[in-house]
């Protein structure tokens, strides 16, 4: 087994990680205390939050209904709404941003694109760019302290309307919030069905305005979601994309277009997208020549770290040290860091 210390020491980036999925238990407890929110009292419920069964949704007694017992991706997203609802002031937002950079540095991540979906942060509805500014100030402070450099992928939720999406993009390209470099879309595709057409105009406007594009697809959707991301949304990266493995023509399109997949095997296994590590298609995608990166998605509620997931992937898929060096180099290439930063990261 390749040890985690060795993995931490590889210069790398992480490109598929949600800020919403990186709050430690201590972060959550501190935010709740700051805001006078009473957490679920029974140790058993707190245990649910921290043992990373959060997507089975804790029975929250105050601070706004995560709902009980809803398993899988949708229940998990409701948990994020509850948790992010605890971030209410600019100082609190800056603090979770700083903590993210510190977490990434502890895993040996030198640069990270982080997905932020303001719809989860219910204290900031209508003030989404103020949230971006507050987060950016935390990332600035972290970088000044020598921690991981971070860029933001501003994420739409799949259930938002076309008009909302276009308004978001107009705001982003006119106001150009510091550190926001990309447009993203996430959420549960099983709930909304196909959304490529709905978001086509927003993503076209983003591309024209110089924003990168990364799209969750082929997780809760099949290959058709990945086709839509590529053909309709001008995606440069796919978040997950694992179900592309079912369609050889799509694999050729990804390889030919240099479109990378931000794969997160532990997330897929835990959230029930893949039955086991053993059956997960990461190795098959890699062998088909697709540019695959290895990421955590939501490490805190999934109870993991990047280095732990890389170690398990090495073991489960039979990757050796040279393979992991390749994954590390590819993560930097696949990132939205500017070319000078990329050169300095390798
Ligand atoms: N938001 C946070 N994690 C997500 C995931 N795995 N899929 C879709 N949306 C998400
Ligand atoms: Zn994700």
Automatic annotation (TrEMBL):
The UniProt record lists the EC number as: 3.5.4.4
Q: Where is the Adenosine deaminase domain?
A: 11-346
Q: Does the keyword Zinc apply?
A: yes
Keywords, sorted A to Z:
Hydrolase, Metal-binding, Zinc
Q: Which InterPro entries match?
A: A_deaminase_dom (IPR001365), Ado/ade_deaminase (IPR006330), Metal_Hydrolase (IPR032466)
Gene Ontology MF: a single term: metal ion binding
Q: Does the keyword Zinc apply?
A: yes
**Cofactor dependency:** Zn(2+)
The family classification in the record reads: Belongs to the metallo-dependent hydrolases superfamily. Adenosine and AMP deaminases family.
The record's PANTHER family line, in alphabetical order, gives: ADENINE DEAMINASE (PTHR43114:SF6)
The name this protein carries in UniProt is Adenosine deaminase
Species per Swiss-Prot/TrEMBL record: Microbacterium lushaniae
């Amino acid at each position: 087994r390749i040890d985690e210390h060795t993995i931490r020491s590889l210069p790398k980036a992480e490109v598929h990680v949600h800020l919403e999925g990186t709050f430690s238990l201590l972060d959550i407890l501190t935010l709740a205390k700051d805001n006078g929110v009473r957490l679920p009292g029974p140790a058993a419920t707190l245990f649910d939050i921290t043992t990373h069964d959060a997507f089975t949704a804790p029975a929250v007694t105050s601070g706004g209904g995560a709902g009980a017992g809803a398993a899988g991706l949708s229940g998990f997203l409701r948990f994020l709404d509850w948790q992010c609802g605890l971030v209410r002031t600019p100082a609190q937002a800056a603090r979770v941003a700083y903590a993210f950079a510190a977490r990434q540095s502890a895993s040996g991540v030198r640069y990270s694109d982080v997905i932020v979906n303001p719809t989860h942060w219910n204290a900031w509805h209508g003030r989404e760019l103020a949230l971006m500014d507050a987060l950016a100030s935390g990332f600035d402070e972290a970088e000044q302290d020598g921690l991981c450099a971070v860029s933001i992928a501003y994420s739409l939720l799949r259930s938002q309307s076309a008009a909302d999406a276009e308004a978001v993009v107009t705001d982003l390209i006119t106001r150009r919030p510091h550190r926001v470099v990309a447009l993203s879309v996430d959420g549960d595709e099983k709930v909304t069905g196909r959304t490529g057409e709905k978001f086509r105009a927003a993503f076209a406007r983003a591309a024209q305005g110089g924003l990168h594009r990364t799209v969750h697809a082929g997780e809760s959707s099949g290959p058709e979601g990945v086709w839509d991301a590529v053909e309709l949304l001008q995606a440069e990266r796919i978040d997950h994309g694992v179900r592309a493995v079912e369609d050889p023509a799509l694999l050729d399109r990804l390889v030919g277009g240099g479109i990378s997949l931000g794969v997160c095997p532990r997330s897929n296994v835990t959230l029930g997208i893949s039955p086991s590590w053993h059956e997960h298609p990461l190795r098959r995608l890699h062998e088909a020549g697709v540019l695959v990166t290895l990421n955590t998605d939501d490490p805190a509620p999934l109870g993991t770290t990047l280095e732990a997931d890389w170690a398990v992937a090495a073991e489960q898929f039979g990757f050796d040290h040279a393979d992991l060096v390749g994954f590390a180099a590819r993560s930097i290439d696949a990132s939205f860091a500017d070319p000078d930063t990329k050169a300095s990261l390798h």
